[in-house]
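Tokens help. One example:
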Amino acid sequence: MDCQKHLFSIDPEISYLNNAYRGPLLKASENAALTDLGKMRNPQELQPSDFFTETEEVRGLFAQLISAETDEIAIIPSTSYGFASALSNWTDQKGQKAITVKDEFPSGYFAVKRWAEEHQSSLEVIGEDAELSWNDKILAAIDEHTALVLISSVHWMNGYIFDLEVIGAKCQKVGACFIVDGTQSVGAKPIDVKACKIDALICATYKWLLGPYSLGLAYFGEKFEGGKPLEESWMNRTNSRNFSELTNYRQEFLPKAHKFDVGESSHFILMPILKKSLEQILQWSTEEIQHYTSDLKKYLFESLELDLFHAQSSSNHLFALPLKLGLNPQVLKSELENEKVFVSVRGQSLRVSLHLYNDQRDIQRLVSVLEKS
């Protein structure tokens, strides 16, 4: 695949190697938002179906991306909302334990910490180990006392790839609930929620799904079919599409994950952005995104004469870049930005995140600054 920068409005003078911070909008998504904004000028033209049609299309596109069913997808405003929806519906015997990983993103960490406290459970935080792989340490920790495992699909700071399929199988074996934050890989890396035995997959859309801020998507599996939503929205009821009969109150929810939708889930202006981005991602395919970013990552490591073998545990699209001893990553970040090269600092490392709008010229500009430091 060739570089896809022409599909974005990115300034041609910069090298944006920071998609994990915020994904840029596609030109097609910009146009879709403007078109929907124009529709809002004449709301008399809105039909009741307009409140639902695009959300159902987005559900279907996201379901296709993660190998799920359309009715298993919920529209949420944030990952914290998704975690709360899942965890408020997962009860287990008191005195058991929950598991997460060291330096998990705060939304996930605080959600699982609250769950453990409310259920009088211990919280085990699994860190890396020089002698045992991170995946093996997680697997060793999951036992018959484990009620819940909440981790990201790849670590948000360094791109470490968690073996979701093996971890999910272990969770299923012991009866633990497996919740995954897919924000930093879904849309850029293949995932199959069924094969990985994931019970809930929670994703913000403004990173690798190239969508808007304040909008998210979530998959809820069989464990949550009898669950209760966080709020009592009219939109997720079985008679919600008949506006003249809304006060003929219906207790019944729409099928499966629909009940977990946030109120006002239509998200006019924002939803068209997300729909266009999902369509484009599916057209590219996450397999192609990984192949393309793998070539760029390899080119970067070879240019810096770094050991690519030790980079294999991290994803192709997101990884921490080893720095020379004594380098201050914050100072280095400022030097890069002076040359219009954009990355993130996470911990004591530079976090580089690549997408299809990047090319070898971007890598060369990054390398040029690093070699001077």
